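A reminder before we start the practical. When you read a complex entry, don't treat the lines as separate problems. The point of joint prediction is that each chain is placed relative to the others, so the output describes one connected object in space. Small molecules and nucleic acid strands, if listed, are placed in the same frame. In the example below there are two entries. Take a minute to note the order of the lines before looking further.
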Amino acid sequence: MKENKYDDAAFFAAYRQFPRSVDGLKAAGEWHDFQKLLPDFTNKRVLDVGCGFGWHCRYAADHGATSVLGIDLSEKMLQVAAEKTANPKISYQRLAMEEMNFPANCFDVVISSLAFHYTPDFQAVCQQLNHCLAPSGQFVFSVEHPVFTAEGHQDWFYDADGKPEYWPVDHYFQEGQRDAVFLGQHVTKYHRTLTTYLNTLLQTGFTITNIVEPTPPQELLASVPGMQDELRRPMMLLVAAQKIN
Amino acid sequence: MKENKYDDAAFFAAYRQFPRSVDGLKAAGEWHDFQKLLPDFTNKRVLDVGCGFGWHCRYAADHGATSVLGIDLSEKMLQVAAEKTANPKISYQRLAMEEMNFPANCFDVVISSLAFHYTPDFQAVCQQLNHCLAPSGQFVFSVEHPVFTAEGHQDWFYDADGKPEYWPVDHYFQEGQRDAVFLGQHVTKYHRTLTTYLNTLLQTGFTITNIVEPTPPQELLASVPGMQDELRRPMMLLVAAQKIN
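Here is the predicted structure of the whole assembly.
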């Protein structure tokens, strides 16, 4: 069974209340950086891996994509995605990323938001994505940053007053399963090093065109309590890559 | 005045006793990974930025380079480098990396080992190196990893028994000067994010061909006390890049 926490009723109920679940892309702290990495979608065939509620699918379709396929393992997520989607250019399919088996040259752009830290085999995913992309096809994704996933608890080390003292890094080169707590629930994630993320791309036929560790926009830094702590450690890694012809 | 701690008598005396200063490349924990990133030096014109005692210069010359120029800011380091060097293909020049001003197309390969965390302006250095490299010229370097430089003290957080409990990360997105303790001396280093290291390369005319966070070789992990801790956090970042024609 592939990791499918999002079909767990309690987790799904919590996730559904998450700001980015309610308000979509504009409530995602990394969106202003992720958006800049996205290519022109005009006349593009787009695949979204781990599409969740379909926010990125709708964005691509609204910006000129001719077709958008969103895949996700969670039936509950896809049900909400379908309810939120009226555009016939978008379709959804229940499919684990590990089981993708698309024909060659059937997509021009692949996007994926915060999904790859759920797979134990990033290399197999990259190989399949390289296969199904057209020559010079673009691949833009976000993952939780290796600094964020390494130790496992995904939380600060707090001082005696309960203030975040520093972000702990440990077990960095011990790749694999982590039992993280997210929205009060235990979730299995997979840590891998930066070397693995980036070199896997280079070794499966991509060139890297942009790398960003996003920081919150100025208005959030100024207005949201605790947001300044987001400048103390990287939480996400955004990568834009291109298939080598 | 550019950072020139290596001409401080006390620091130099300590550095000179450092294993890699005495025994050269084979005593450097990252050498087995760095070596794999190096190109074929046959008939190449090589520049080594921050050459120190000249170990990498001599390696390049021993492996077929037609000429090797090592630059360093430290007179004391260059004096030892000259004493250790008999090969007339190698020359040394006292020059801060910030003051490089080489003609276009005068080197085929640029290497740099653990020097760039001493410069406040990595972008200017990359621009100059791209300028002086021949088309498709190769650029291979190591730096202290952003996880290692972020917090500033470059030390573990210890538990009550004096054992390393976690590696602390803090101030990650606050780039700039750090007052680190190295060999018992205060040394000024510059922290920058992974985004800055890699995107600066992409933005100054390079493509990235390999990225490695080195780990100690198996024999050291098995035999040297405390070496297992090197698997708990990344200390260095090795990058191979190529000038885009």
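Discuss with your neighbour: The longest helix of chain A spans residues 122-132. What might explain this?
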